[in-house]
Every structure is written in structure tokens, then in C-alpha cells.
Amino acid sequence: MNKKILIIGQKGFIGSNIFKFFKKKKLKVFSLSFESFINDYKKNIKEFDIIVNCSSNKKFIENKYQIRNDNDLIIAKKIIHSKTKLVMLSTRKIYQAKFNIGELDKKKPKCNYSKNKLISEISVQKILSNRVLILRISNIIGFQNKNKRKLHKTFLDIFFEMVQRGFVYKNKKIYKDFISIKKFNEIVLELIKTNSFGAYNVSLGKKIYINQLVTWLNFYNSKKINFLNPENSFNNDNFTLNNRKLMRKIKIKNNVKELKIECLRISKYFFTKK
User: Fold this and answer.
1) How far apart are CA 78 and CA 80, in angstroms?
2) Which residues are CB-contacts of 224 (< 8 A; sequence separation ≥ 6)?
3) N or C: which end of the chain has fewer CB within 10 A?
4) How far apart are CA 105 and CA 115, in angstroms?
5) Which of 119, 104, 111 is nearest to 198 (CA)?
6) DSSP strand pairing (175-176 vs 208-209)
7) Is 269 exposed, middle or buried, given 0-12, 13-18 or 19+ CB atoms closer than 10 A?
8) In whole angstroms, what is the distance from residue 11 CA to residue 260 CA?
9) In terms of Cα–Cα distance, which of 130, 34, 18 is closest to 74?
């Protein structure tokens, strides 16, 4: 593939992982901060075929929607008259939580971040049409360098913080959808190769019970830990994303075994690295 790809926001968890993965695949991949791209966007538009925006900012995540905080829309407006395509990272939180959510299912964002992402999706699609690929992502499991930029906590952050305090929540009834960062990277690459556009759910597409996930992540922990049932107020919005549209498009392997292997690898690294 001869396309030149720009990763905006390479200092974050997803951006840094995509960048490394594309480098290993010997693709023509480069990285810039959001600010650097905007400061010289006329040159950057001509230079790159695809922009993968992994950048965001705290105001967009925490506050009510304002255009000036919407990095995706700002980028879209800059590339509107070019042939450059945009890959936009969105979230499963735009949906009403339930089992087997499809791309056309009801949207019911609850937090400012998910409300803002839905507004951004609609605005960017109006501007770029078939030049935008929107990835509605479930929970991503993968290593994160402590030195990398972090705007919000991931499931792993919360898990290991609790482990260090000597307890973890386990509940047989709570399930969510997950995907490993390795599989996520593969999916992004395949979607780019196939010139995909529009919105895709990016997930394993299966129920992963928190009970099960915690067991995998705690596998190499030699210290005694207390397992507690969460209180009724605990966030238990069970969901899975229907990923059939995605799998029909790229036709790659995506199963629970791979997620388990990734969790065990993380557990081994975290609990035996000393």
C-alpha cells in the first residue's frame, strides 16, 4: 500500500499503538500533534492521503459541546477541499446500552463525551461524506506506557489501581464488550486497505463477563486479593456491539481466545516484571 498515513495524537494510548503497528508493517506512516497539523495544515493536506485522528482534549471530554473543542470537525474543515480521508475514533457510549447493538440502533449518549462524539460524527459526515471512516469502539485492552498522554482512565487503569489496594470487583451478571489493541490495529489497517467509509462498530461482538476478564488479568498475581461484589450503584450497563458489518467488510479472525491471550500477557508483564 503506497498511501501516506498521518497519525494525529501519537502520544496517546491508541495513537502510539497504531503508529508502532503501521511502522512494523512498513507503511508510510508519520505522526504530528494536533497543534502542529493545524499550524501547517495546507502543507499536510497535500502530503497525506489518510489522516487517523487519535487526538482529543479535556474540554471535549468533560464539558458540553463547543465547536472549538472538536478536533475531528476542525480537521474535517481543513481537508474539505482535498482528497484526504479522515479516520475518526468514536465510542460505543453513543448508543443505548444493550445486547447486540447495531450501527443503526438507537443513540442515547449520557455523558458529555458521548454526546459530543455523536454531534461530531454527524457534523463531520455532512462535510466529508464518503471521505470519513468512523470507528465506534468498545473497551480496548492493551499495554499503555505510563509516559504516554492519558485523558481518561481505561478499564485496565481501574483494575490495576484496585489490585494495588488489595481488592477487585467481580460480578457474574455484568458483561461488556472488549477488543485487544493488537486486533484493533489490524482492523484499522484492513479498513484503510479496503477504502472503507461510514460508521463501523469495532469490537469482539461477544459477552465478556467482568468476572471472567478479572480472572485472566489477575492470573499471575501471587498476592492474596479480596473479590468484592459491586454495590447496586456500580456501573453495570451491560452491552455488546454487533460487528457483523465490520466482519463482512474485512473478513479477519476475531475471537475470545485472542482476547484471553492478551489479558494473560498483560497479567504476566504486570505481576512478574519485577
Assistant:
1) 6
2) none
3) C
4) 16
5) 104
6) antiparallel
7) exposed
8) 27
9) 34
For residue 126, give the 3-state DSSP assignment.
Answer: helix
* Cα–Cα dist 213/266, whole Å: 12
Grid cell in block for residue 45: 493536506
> Could you tell me the domains of the chain?
4-272 (3.40.50.720)
For the segment 73-89, what is each residue's pLDDT rounded down to a tens digit?
Answer: 999 999 999 999 999 99
Residues 132-190: tens digit of each pLDDT: 999 999 999 997 665 555 566 788 888 888 898 888 877 788 899 999 999 999 999 99
Is the CB of residue 52 less than 8 Å from the CB of residue 5? Answer: yes
Residue whose C-alpha is closest to residue 210's, from 234, 191, 190: 234
Length of the chain: 274
Report how far residue 94's alpha carbon sits from residue 212's, in angstroms, rounded to the nearest whole number: 26
